[in-house]
Amino acid sequence: MPQHEHDPCSSCAARGYSVCSAIDDKDLGRLAATAVVRDLAKGETFIEEGDSASDFFNVTRGTVKLYKLLPDGRQQVTGFAGAGHFLGLAVSNTYAFSAEAIEQSRVCRFSRPKLRELLHDFPALEERLLQTACNELVAAQEQMLLLGRKTARERVASFLVARLETGIPCVNPSDAIALPMTRGEIADYLGLTIETVSRTFSRFKAEKRIAIPSNTEVVILDRPWLSGIAAGLQ
Amino acid sequence: MPQHEHDPCSSCAARGYSVCSAIDDKDLGRLAATAVVRDLAKGETFIEEGDSASDFFNVTRGTVKLYKLLPDGRQQVTGFAGAGHFLGLAVSNTYAFSAEAIEQSRVCRFSRPKLRELLHDFPALEERLLQTACNELVAAQEQMLLLGRKTARERVASFLVARLETGIPCVNPSDAIALPMTRGEIADYLGLTIETVSRTFSRFKAEKRIAIPSNTEVVILDRPWLSGIAAGLQ
DNA sequence: CGCACACTTGAACCCCCTCAACCCAAGTGG
DNA sequence: CCACTTGGGTTGAGGGGGTTCAAGTGTGCG
C-alpha cells in the first residue's frame, strides 16, 4: 500500500520551508487529513476578491499571482506566490485579493474551521503564521517604496535582484532567473506598462547587465550594478 | 493614592481598540508593569530603519508616520499610526522602517523578551496580533493598488475617504477630517509631490467636493462622489 | 514687524504611457 | 505543407499626467 497516498504531506515539495514545518513529522498525518490537494491549470483563478473567505491555501507547486482590480480593468499584482507560500490570511469574511495560477500549479486547501482546530492544537503553527504575516508586511512596505518612489529602471532592477534572492535556493547555474510570469504580469506588479518593462529589459541587455536566453529566463551578468540601481544609487 | 499611577493602562485612551483589549481588566496591572510610557515631541524619530529591533511600541496619543528612505532622500510613507496602533512587528532583528512623531505623541514601549512573556501568558494576545498583522496586510495591498495604478485624483480621493472611514469614531461634526500631517507627508504617502497634492486639493475645493477651513482640516462635501473617484469610477 | 515655514500657483519639461506596427513561435486546420 | 490565427514580445513615434523649477501667498510666532 503506497504510504504517500495517506500522507501526502511528508513527500510534499513545500515541506520544510512552508508553515507546515512548524508541525512535527509524527503529527503530519493529522495535517494531511485536514488538507485537500487541488491542481490548477495555467490561468485558473481560485480566489476571487470579495468572495467569502472560506478557505486557506498553501501553494505546493507552480506559481500563482495575487492581484487586485479596479472597475475599469486596471490591475495591480501584489505578489507572486511560489511553493511553500501560504495564502488567505484574513480577519475579514471576504478575500481582499484574487489569486490565479500563472502556470500549472498545485495548492493545498484548508477550511477555516479546520485550520482553527489545527491552530488550537499546534500553538507553534500560530506563531509561524504570525512570522509569515510579519515577513509579508515587510515585503509589502518594500514594494510600497518601489511603487511610490522608484523609477522604471530601479523597479525592474529591484524585481530581478529580488527574484534572485528569493529564488529557489537549489539549481542555480550562474545567476539565472526563471520568469514564469509574462511581461504584462511583471508590469502589473511593478506599476508599469508592458512596453516599459520590455524596453527596460532591452536596455539592460544592451548594456550587458543581463542576458535574455528566452522569454521565461533572465541571466544576471552584473549583479552588483543591478543591486546598486535597485537600491536607488546613481 | 492615585490608582492610575500604578495602572496607567486602565485609563489609557487607546484601551479598548488596541491590541491591549485582548487582556482582561484584572490582568491589566501585569501589562502596565511591562510597558514603559514615552512622550514624543513633534518631529522626534523613535524607530530608525536598520537599527536592531529591541522594542515594540503601541501608540497611545498623537500620530506617528512610518516611512522608508532611499539613499538620495526620496521618502515613502508606508502608513500613519494613531492611538491604538501597534508597531514593530518583525521577525527580523532589525527594523524595516523608521517611525517619527508628526505631532506631540505618546507611545507605550515593550521590550522584546517582555512581550514574549506576555504572549506566552496571554494566548489571546498572540491571536490579536495575528489579526492586526492581517489587517495591515490588507491595507498594504490596497495601498499597492493605489501607488501602482491610481491617478493623482484617485489617490487623493482615496486618502480622504480612508481618513474619514478610519478616523476617530467620536467627534464628527459633519464630515470633517483632521490632517495632522503636512502636504509633504501626504505626498510621500501617496507617491506624489507636494505640488500635485496641493493642486488636487485646490481642484476638489473649486469643484465644491471638499472645503478646507485650515491647513490641518478638510471637510468632505460630496462623499459619494469622492468615494466613486477613489474606487476608480468615471 | 519680520522671519520661518507651510502651502499655493504658474510655466516648462520629461519620464512614462498610449497607440500602432511589427516580429516570432506555437498551434490549427484545410 | 503551408496559410492562417493567436498570444506574447519588441520597437518606434507622439502625447500627456505629474514633476521640476520658480515665484508668490498666507500665517504663526519671536
How does this model look, in words?
Chains A, B: Residues 19-88 form the Cyclic nucleotide-binding domain. Chains A, B: Residues 150-224 form the HTH crp-type domain. Chains A, B: This is Crp/Fnr family transcriptional regulator. The structure is a homodimer of 234-residue chains. Chain A is an alpha+beta fold. The first copy, chain A, has two domains: 3-136, Jelly Rolls, CATH 2.60.120.10; 150-231, Arc Repressor Mutant, subunit A (Orthogonal Bundle). Chain A has helices at residues 3-6, 28-34, 112-121, 123-149, 152-166, 183-190, 194-206, 223-231, and strands at residues 36-40, 45-47, 55-61, 64-69, 75-81, 86-87, 98-101, 105-111, 176-178, 210-214, 217-220. In chain A, the strands form three sheets. Chain A has a four-stranded antiparallel β-sheet. The first copy, chain A, has a four-stranded antiparallel β-sheet with strand order 2-7-4-5. In chain A, strand 4 (64-69) and strand 5 (75-81) form a beta hairpin. Chain A starts with a helix and ends with a helix. The model of chain A is unreliable at 1-5 (pLDDT under 50). Chain A binds chain B through residues 66, 68, 70-72, 74-76, 78, 89-92, 96-97, 123, 126-127, 129-131, 133-138, 140-145, 147-150, 188, 190-191, 231-233, and chain B through 66, 68, 70-72, 74-76, 78, 89-92, 96-97, 123, 126-127, 129-131, 133-138, 140-145, 147-150, 188, 190-191, 231-233. The first copy, chain A, binds a DNA duplex (30 and 30 nucleotides) through residues 151-152, 182-184, 192-196, 198-199, 201-202, 215.
